[in-house]
Amino acid sequence: MTPQDCQQLRDRLGRAEQAYEDLQLGKSVRVLVDQNGERVEFTAANHNRLATYIQQLRGQLAAECGVTAPGVVVGPLRFLF
C-alpha cells in the first residue's frame, strides 16, 4: 500500500471509531460509507457489526501498513509463564 492508502485507511478507522463512540453515548444512528462506496447505517441494535468493522480495519492497518492499534495482535500468540 502507498502512504496515501494507509492514511485513507487510518481516516476510515477514525471515522468508524467516532461512529462507535457516538452510538455508545446514545447519539442515535450513524452512517458510514465503506471502502466500496456502500452506505452502511449503524444503530445501537447492531453496534457489534460496527465493532467488527473496526477490528477489520485495525487488522488491515497492521498487516498492510505496519501500524498496530490497541486490540490488534500481530504475529503468533505467545504465552508468558
UniProtKB/TrEMBL annotation:
Gene3D superfamilies: Head-to-tail joining protein W. One of its GO terms (biological process) is viral life cycle. Signal peptide: none annotated. It holds the Pfam family gpW. This is Phage tail protein.
